[in-house]
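re: ur question from the group chat, yeah i did fold both. here u go
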Amino acid sequence: MSTLPKVSWIGLGIMGSPMSENLIKAGYDVTGYTLEREKLDRLAAAGGTPASSVAEAVRDADVIVTMVPASPQVEAIAYGPDGILENARTGALLIDMSSITPQTSVDLASAAKDKGIRVLDAPVSGGEAGAVEAALSVMAGGEQADFDEAKPLLEVLGKTIVLCGPHGSGQTVKAANQLIVAVNIQGCAEAVVFLEKSGVDLTAALDVLNGGLAGSTVLTRKKDNFLNRDFEPGFRIDLHHKDMGIVLDAARTVGAALPAGAVVAQLVAALRAQGDGGLDHSALLRAVERLSGARI
């Protein structure tokens, strides 16, 4: 019999499916639930156990991991008679890896405590590639003892695992991450259009730029997207639009000015309004091209 905790995984999307599969490969017993039948079939093929509801998925779990798009989805699966808090066993550890508002995480931790359930907010950075490669960065918020208990599981999913402070802190750091990523992608997109309009060999230019101070994980990960105009979603514009709303709201609450972030948030919103919300966030290149009268 395995001594590893039994895991319930709620949300098997672009990130959740490969992450749950990495746990299965590491020997964890994973029961999963999501709304899409084909994702449940994929979980079963990987050696996991599909469930027919959230309640069924969490009932016998030691650890419950949630990875859903936004605060409303977290609240939908957490609360109510069929939700996690009413059906998980006392003492279970809920690790929410969704990217949501810090206040949603604080409220969830408070409500769960009343039910005898412990909570960590543990959003991630690294995109689909990081999820597949188990190379994610995990930024957690919660109690030290709960983090210590969760760390062996989190180390199966990522390479950088850090407790950032009390409940909500992980989400605050994730919001900062999304701010940095969006501004970085925007800068890269502007550079691509500038280089192409100048007649420079774009492949050579991006290679040398990535070897200097302008280099970044964003450029490494998204260089081929820019070169090939391949915007198959690893992280959708729709989700980054949601995250930019979170960071601007949180910054307003604490009195932090984000001038560059506000501009990029508007560009992300415009791209979404133009019908590109389902594309990868590297499609910010399309917004710059439109403004520059370049190819789309």
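okk and heres the other one u asked abt
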Amino acid sequence: MQPILDAYDARAILPEDGCAGALVGRVWRPELNGPSTVAVRPGADGAPELVDISRAFPTIRDLCETPDPAAALRAAEGEPVGPLDAVLANTPPETRDPSRPWLLAPIDLQAVKAAGVTFAVSMLERVIEERARGNPDAAAAIRLEVGRLVGDDLRRLKPGSAEAMALKAVLVAQGAWSQYLEVGIGPDAEIFTKAQPLSSVGCGQDAGLHPGSQWNNPEPEVALVVASDQRIVGATLGNDVNLRDFEGRSALLLGKAKDNAASCALGPFLRLFDDGFSLDHVRRTVVGLEVMGEDGFRLAGTSPLSEISRDPADLVAAMMGGNHQYPDGAVLFLGTMFAPVEDRGAPGQGFTHKVGDRVVIRSPALGALVNRMRHCQDCEPWTFGAAALMRNLAARGLLGG
């Protein structure tokens, strides 16, 4: 298989302004037999390097709980781990030197949640999945029929509004209402658990596809990082890998469609909010996607956050609010409008992944998240959970504060 990245160059994954933002991540340090929190800073030669700040912040969770995480990150002292280029180059599993550091996902103890059906385009595709019962052969004809009944311009509808409820009444009368329309334009947002804490994969690692799925796609998204008191403290990029056939058969299979080994990718780094990057920047973000197959297939598209149907702050409130508590904070995928329908194989079947696909998700302010798709059982197994993390940090003397 081809390497995940064409060039192991930090400039390929960093934001457009390089190290100017408050960037934090995690690396595995083999000599410590565990992960470290790292700041991304310019080295003496100007090239980006990673600095271990675990003495100040043993976990990303600890940093996010401070009153001003970006300022705390910049003030934290630490020890150099090495150039970002070198750590990035050592991250792909098939070429890794296990005696040297490699990148991990930039979150740890946070709950990993996702908001579904937050864009009109993806909402209609979910309706199509539901009516097709997971059969891609039926999708093209159903797409035309759903467009005729519902229309293709739902961006102006505010979820839960009187106008949205009037549309619901019409569609119910026509027998065209759907559970996906309910969470897309109804009063209540869909918030579900995407992955377990510590199970996400990072930039340069393999992302997992369930081997039983024949119809699936990447979901390029922005993911917000939220402290336990509901403060939104930063953002990163994510791939909410989706199995369209499983969820299309039944919405009750959402867990099987979404939560599989290595099926949650986040990175490359968490960018903390400061004077140069805020939630308003997220609201204006355009997320780009490229899929490059070993068979020569190419797919590209964009997902502008400006077209989201529910404001990111409202989605965070729906996730957390007064009815749910997350003492270690949470990460929330905001959803995507990118639902690829371009045929890859037989006409009318639309897009689906093939093993070996390289997926690149980009944003000017957040950089690039790069992963190669493999079957779940062929990805690196996840064995380092919360108990292992606590034992490792205790052995390193990092849990005294």
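fwiw on the second one: Residues 160 and 187 are 4 Å apart (CA to CA). The first strand starts at residue 22 and ends at 29. idk if thats what u expected
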